[in-house]
């Protein structure tokens, strides 16, 4: 299994509070991704990173920001959480050099915004 | 219209039987194709990449039809442990960004 951890694994927070989710990898992969998964939807990309300090928006980036100051860590921040951000959040990493961009996922964080 | 569409199922399959299902994708420039498996409340796990000529991995066979823009997955000799949601995934750009279908649920019954 790919060495990816996410923290926290579960979190309940109140509307309007800031929340930061952490993804940590031990694989030294260049590419990292944040997704959210909601019933009836496939995984949807929030933000991704192609290197330290290099990030870009995905299809559902509004209300989210990211930072990557080290290869191994990719942080997702909800500046002011809303109930619509209640979801399961997955981090993924991608190998370089294979040309296929297969992604490997962390165990997920279940976030509830009340 | 969603970029990747799948029949949500469930496909109820007797143990030992064969089940097959498809997904369709809308972007003709899609470059890579995958099937992922996701168990309830778990992360998606890569089942197999799908190659242009079709490929097999044990009891699993994947096919790609670029002309009609669909991908198929066939599971032979179904096991109880094959019960899961199968996600069809397509890569459409050079940054490795993936488009996910919402998944097809398979339930294998004794």
CA distance, first residue to last residue of chain A = 34 Å
The poorly predicted ranges of chain A are none
Number of helices of chain B: 0
Shape of chain B: globular
Determine the strand fraction of chain A and express it as a percent band.
over 45%
Structural class of chain A: mainly beta
Kindly estimate the percentage of residues of chain B that lie in beta strands according to DSSP: over 45%
Q: Compute the number of strand runs of chain A.
A: 11
Mean pLDDT of chain B: 94
Task: Work out the helix count of chain A.
Answer: 0
Give, in order, the helices and strands of chain B.
EEEEEEEEEEE
- What percent of residues of chain B adopt helix (DSSP H or I)? under 10%
What is the residue-mean pLDDT of chain A, rounded to a whole number?
93
Helix content of chain A: under 10%
Can you give a write-up of this model?
The complex is a heterodimer of chains A (114) and B (110). Chain A has strands at residues 4-7, 10-13, 19-25, 31-37, 44-51, 54-57, 64-70, 73-78, 87-94, 103-105, 109-113. With 114 residues, chain A is mostly beta strands. In chain A, β9 and β10 (103-105) form a beta hairpin. The radius of gyration of chain A is 13 Å and the shape is globular. The mean pLDDT of chain A is 93. Chain B has 110 residues and is an all-beta fold. The mean pLDDT of chain B is 94. The A-B interface holds A 31, 33, 35, 40-45, 48, 50, 56, 58, 90, 94, 100-108 and B 2, 4, 32, 34, 42-46, 49, 87, 91, 95-103.
């Amino acid at each position: 299994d790919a060495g990816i951890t996410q923290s926290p694994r579960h979190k309940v927070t109140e509307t309007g509070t800031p929340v930061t989710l952490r993804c940590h990898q031990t694989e030294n992969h260049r590419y990292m991704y944040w997704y959210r998964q909601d019933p009836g939807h496939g995984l949807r990309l929030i933000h991704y990173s192609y290197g330290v300090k290099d990030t870009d928006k995905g299809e559902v980036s509004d209300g989210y920001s990211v930072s990557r100051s080290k290869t191994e860590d990719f942080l997702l921040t909800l500046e002011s959480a809303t109930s619509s951000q209640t979801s399961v959040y997955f981090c993924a990493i991608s190998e370089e050099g294979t040309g296929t961009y297969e992604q490997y996922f962390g165990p997920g964080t279940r976030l509830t915004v009340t | 219209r969603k970029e990747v569409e799948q029949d949500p199922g469930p496909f109820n399959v007797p143990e030992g039987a064969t089940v097959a299902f498809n997904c369709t994708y809308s972007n003709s420039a899609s470059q890579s194709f995958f099937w992922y498996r996701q168990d309830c409340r778990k992360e998606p796990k890569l089942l197999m990449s799908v190659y242009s000529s079709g490929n097999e991995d044990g009891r699993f066979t994947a096919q790609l039809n670029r002309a009609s823009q669909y991908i198929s997955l066939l599971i032979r000799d179904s096991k109880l442990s094959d019960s899961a949601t199968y996600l069809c995934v397509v890569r459409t750009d050079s940054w490795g960004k993936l488009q996910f279908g919402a998944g097809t649920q398979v339930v294998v019954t004794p």
